[in-house]
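Q: My collaborator sent me two sequences in one message, no labels, and asked for predicted structures for both. Can we handle them in order? The first one she listed is below.
A: Yes, handling them in the order given. First sequence, followed by its structure tokens:
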Amino acid sequence: MDVDHYAVLGLPSGEEGSKLSEKEISKAYRAKALELHPDKRPDDPNAHANFQILKSSYEILKDEKARKLFDDLLRVKREQHRRQSERDSKRQKMMTDLEARERSAFAPDPAAKELAEEEKIAKKLKEEIARIRAMHAKKGAPTTFPPKKETGGVGKNSDGDPGSTMDKERMLKVSWEKIGEDYTAEKLREMFSKFGEVEDVVIRHNKKKKGSAVIVMSSKDAAVASTRSVLGDLSNPLLVLPLQPVSSVEMPAAEKSPEHNRLNNLVGAGYQAFEDSILKKLQKAGEKQKQ
């Protein structure tokens, strides 16, 4: 039942075999018998059994009724094989689809992944922008200046407090024309630190063409040395003046002469003009040195 009798005779099986004539089957049998006859295979122990199988297959195919039943059997087997193949194919497809769905279920969502990546990059960018802003603010922004102590009058110490006078003697007023490269708090600190420790730098922002700043040195000697030595860039010189001259013994109000008061008023009124003339002289000197 499990033998393909067409294949035993060396003939094509299936639908093609069922169309063969008896003459073609007999011819194939004779050719195969000459090949498998035991006399031709003395050394083959299975020669006789193989020859008997050949004869049996020929007898079945030679009989019209037996051959028809055998063809039907082959047809049924082919149908079973085809259906089995289809089931296997469907089963394989189902398994493949199931595996794909499982991978999709456990795999991260592409849209969610892209959103997370975008948020991550945006967070890093914000941190970088904050770092850059902090760096620039540290370089260019003026530092805060400690509040001044309240005094009882303009230019005078309340209750004769000597500490306030000493603080002002360590302060320098620096001014310059706003031409070319401007001066920053960091640059001023670097210039004046050559003559002593700089405690603070306060740049005064105004809309005029002139820039100004207050420098607080660590000692009176450092302030005096800076006043005599710091000139700034030749293309944009600095005018450095003490915020308050070195302290001297004040005369009582009753002992001050009218001439002394007149000189004080003259100094206050002409301070700005004196400052402007010094700046212009320094600028002309810088231009001549360049030429």
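Q: And the one she listed second?
A: Here it is, processed independently of the first:
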Amino acid sequence: MAVVAGVFSVCMFVMYLCSITYNIFTITDGTPNSTVFTFRGYGGKFKYLTFLNFLLQTFYYGLCAVTAIVGSTGGPSRDPRKRSALQKFRDFLHNTLAFPVGTFVVVTFWAIYAVDRELVFPKALDQFIPPWLNHVMHTFILPILLLDKYLNYHHLPKRRNGILGLLLFGVIYLIWILWIAYHANVWVYPILKVLETHQRVIFLSFLLMLFVSLYLLGEGLTRFLWRKELGANLAARNTKSSKSNKKKSR
């Protein structure tokens, strides 16, 4: 399983790296001297959560690949105190950002797209972004993350720390797009433009709650997929603790 997981991580990193390189250097808005920093105005591609998530997933799978290559990984049976700093960072990044943000992008994109694509991915973008890249950014992310959860065990951080880390990311991104709306008079997502102020507040609050829900979903999936190993590990620790207590009582 470790070899398969390692090969999977390397392949996903290469796929994401090639895709994002194509995105950065090939996808333009048709204007002269268009770059990743100027794409469709102020903020460039960095104003889109899809692109930020693209960077996040590329970095994450690169980290997974390195972790697998140096052998710094392990399942639930491994003593958490013996995990390397690299594995701890990988697991925290997966639970706090990679899974919930990646899932959020897929779910919200296709949900809004099904209602009215002009609200999230205007047809005008079809001339810039080929279908295969659109699916890499908005579709393939979720099944890849689910397969990653199945192949790699990610030690869960304290729920409070994980949720706070995710919400911090969400709030920072909201401040960023609101600043763009104020400074450049541009709403990154057309759906925010058509909503009234109170509707925006409700909508954005709902999205933050969705962030938290997806974090809890990821946590639950990890516990479900690795329930046998976690159960065996807990039983082993209880047995060891029981033996230790008996020795002390003597």
